[in-house]
Amino acid sequence: MEVHQCPDGLWFNANKKQCQTPAESGCTVTTEVSPTWTTPIEACWGVRPSQTILRPYPGDCNRFIECYGAQSTVMVCPPHLYFNEVRQLCDWPSESGCDGDDDPRCVDGTTSYWPHPECTKYIECYQGQGYTMECPSGLYFDPEDIMCEDPSQSSCGHTEPTIGPTTTKDSNWTPDPICPWPSNERYLFPYPGDCTKFWECAEGERVAMDCPDNLWFNPILLVCDYPYQSGCIYG
């Protein structure tokens, strides 16, 4: 069998047995899509389904991890602000409780190795500082064996989430009309007339929250931001 090739820009029409323009040929091209794999995020283990929690990003105070059930998204605070895990928002560095690149697990100055939120990475403590290291391609860090190994042998990513207790609502309770329900996802809304505040919806209830001093709520990024770039207008 001899294989023939159409001239450049033309496709073969199997019905008419001739080369034509792609639009006239009736030929379709299918593309094989390679499967994608999601690396388990250890920081989100134990988060209940439909629950949203913010967790710190190891070694980088300017970032944080948004956990929605087992799903995770790395978020970035505005420049020069740090994530405050207690208040669950971006804050001034002096108020955030985060010590920059100083990992609290590395304070004793010894060389040690700790798990990272991403299974393909780990934290190496050296002379009091924490450094993010990469495992060789295709391997996961095992915090028990303290080495990179095959994912099937690593304990990273195989822990079942812990289901926490559920909150029982009063029989007369009704959700706030502005808050999506039923949903445990974290929703943030601007607070009318006050850029320093914002509304947070959690489990159908609306709570007024305050941004750190001298910061305003940014309704686009959904974080407390510098006033000049927050996009918030009083009135």
TrEMBL record:
Gene3D superfamilies with a match to the protein in the record: Chitin binding domain
GO molecular function, one term: chitin binding
Keyword annotations: Chitin-binding, Disulfide bond, Glycoprotein, Repeat, Signal
Cross-referenced SUPFAM superfamilies: Invertebrate chitin-binding proteins (SSF57625)
Chitin-binding type-2 domain ranges (all copies): 41-100, 103-158, 176-234
GO cellular component: extracellular region
Calcium as UniProt keyword: no
PANTHER family for the chain: CHITIN BINDING PERITROPHIN-A, CHITIN-BINDING TYPE-2 DOMAIN-CONTAINING PROTEIN-RELATED
Protein's UniProt name: Peritrophic matrix protein 5-A
Lineage, broadest ranks: Eukaryota, Metazoa, Ecdysozoa, Arthropoda, Hexapoda
